[in-house]
Amino acid sequence: MGRPKSPQLTRERIREHALAIIDGQGLEALSMRRLADSLGVRAASLYNHVATKEALLHDVADDVMGTVDTSGFDIDWPTGLTRWARSYRAALAAHPNLVPFMASGPARRETSLRRADAVHGGLTSAGWPQRYATMIGASTKFLVLGAAMGSFAGGFVDDAEVYDERFPHLHGAHLLREHAAEIDDDSFELALRALVDGLRAQHARLFPQR
User: Fold this and answer.
1) Whole-angstrom distance, CA of residue 116 vs CA of residue 135
2) What is the pTM of this model?
């Protein structure tokens, strides 16, 4: 009888298993040995498909960025910025353990750079100077990353006694955890609207004829 066939390895399957480990156990839990065990192969087999762990992380990050929507810039820059921010937050929120790696920037990742190019191009095509477009992209990224790093409302404990006497202005803070998802979502939308509305006003001042 012939030997049983080893599980088929593909770059896509490797990335899927790597992301599953990161999602389930954390970024530091990913190793080539653990990944190979998950795939049912020897670690050496992985290097036929991916050069290093860092290269694999970049590939995984690029897959996540592939779900980010920049098509709204075909309509106008406020729509583009809003859709980009919402979809960017959703992509990161789905994989919070990967956020620290992705926070450093697009590096040489093809999809990530395409998204950055679309955002910058959408802004400059609308008349924003290069410097402003860069700062708007950065400001939006800071907002998204902050929202994706963790829950604001979920950071409070659900014990009223903690707040009632010593922190009188936080007398209702013990209720925040119960409504954390709603509060976090609404807070992100408030910040995003404030950013876009402020930029609209600034755009009108800078370019009154446009």
Assistant:
1) 12
2) 0.88
CA-angle at 117, arms to 115 and 122, nearest 5°:
100
Phi/psi of residue 164, nearest 5 degrees: -55, -45
Long-range contacts of 47-52 (CB under 8 A, 24+ apart): 48/9, 49/9, 49/10, 49/11, 49/14, 50/11, 50/14
Strand residue runs (E) in the chain: none
Instruction: Kindly give the confidence (pLDDT) of every residue in the chain, 210 residues in length, as a single tens digit, with 9 standing for 90 and above.
Output: 444 455 588 999 999 999 999 999 999 999 999 999 999 999 999 999 999 999 999 999 999 999 999 999 999 999 999 999 999 999 999 999 999 999 988 889 999 999 999 999 999 999 999 999 999 999 999 999 999 988 999 999 999 999 988 898 998 999 999 999 999 999 999 999 999 999 999 999 988 765
Is residue 50 within 8 Å of residue 96, measured between CB atoms? no
**Tokens (6 digits) for 158:** 């659900």
- Give the chain's radius of gyration (CA, Å): 22
> Closest Cα partner for 126 from 118, 34, 154?
118
Angle value at C-alpha 207, between 143 and 85, nearest 5 degrees = 20
* Side chain identity at residue 101, one-letter code: F
